[in-house]
Amino acid sequence: MSMKEWMDLDIDQLELLEVDDLEKARVKKHVLNRQKKSSIWRNMVVSAALGVSVLTVATGFAFPSLVSQIPFMDHVISYFDDEEQHYKNFETFSTDIGLAQSSNGITVMIDNAVYDGTNVTVAYAIETEHDFGEVMDVRAPNWFDVSEASGSGGTSKITKISDNHYVGLETFTPHFEENQHPETIEVTWKPEAFNSFSNELEVEGDWSFAFSLNRVEGDIQLVNETVQQKDVSFTLKSVEFTDVSTVISYEQVVSDELLKEWPSVTPTFHISDDLGHVYLDGGGGGGTSHDNGKAFYGTTDFGTIQEGASKLIIQPVEIASLMSGKGHIEVELEPIVIELQ
């Protein structure tokens, strides 16, 4: 599709497709741990890197004014209606990125991104000349790489909205030394190939993006409340309220005896308010441990608090696992009730 055709695209011509169970289950790259490495930044703030290789030719352009003329490209986040509560303020407080790269018949366009001090969310769109079927996947060795971060973990989702258009949503947590939260982060993303889940199609190419994000400021409420059982002690350190999310920070200590029996012990949460709204039911978050899981420091985020709520109820549920699907148990701790200020 030419650029003129993009600009003339009529949103009424796009046939929205139902998302099947396979797509809903595509929460992947849950632990993307990698060794810390240096990143080269040549003043590439909100600019795409252009590249030419022997096998592929890539073109790149920044187009903040063009985005509004491409109906499905504008407001990508709106296609993820099942998570509307979580991302309801995304459009208002996110950063307009407006970058595009084309290679081997696939154009990738980054729409918006937001960094809440803990997590990063990136919304993007894909136009392709190839038939990838109902579910597309992307191969990128370092995924979204954040300068100065030692690793990251998160989730990825790509949804088909018409025959040759897809929208994607990435949410990930970069891990920094000593649990730091930089005011500004620099992000690079270099997909190497796109492939299909329904056939053996894989299309390699040359795409490269670089942009920076400023932290969305929030209000921090210190908690420092501990709940424990015999083998697990969990301390909720704080809750941060931003315009786009709510972030809880915590640490836990697990006994040597429990780790001998169950080598992985990670927290998940049931989080609700006094009005009955449920914000998280079984989800977890990113974190770090320097002693093989005995002490764990982590964060978890969810949507903004509903208006009128006066209490937040956070119940940790520890998943003690043998890993690799070999079995697990759940250890429920007492809920922590926070009076909202």
Automatic annotation (TrEMBL):
All residue ranges annotated as the DUF5643 domain in the record: 221-338
Keywords per UniProt: Membrane, Transmembrane, Transmembrane helix
DUF4179 domain span: 36-127
Classification via Pfam families: DUF4179 (PF13786), DUF5643 (PF18705)
InterPro entries reported in the protein's UniProt record: DUF4179, DUF5643
Superkingdom: Bacteria
Signal peptide interval: none
Keyword Lipoprotein appears in the UniProt entry: no
Transmembrane segments: 44-63
Protein name as annotated: DUF4179 domain-containing protein
Lineage of the species this protein comes from: Bacteria, Bacillati, Bacillota, Bacilli, Bacillales
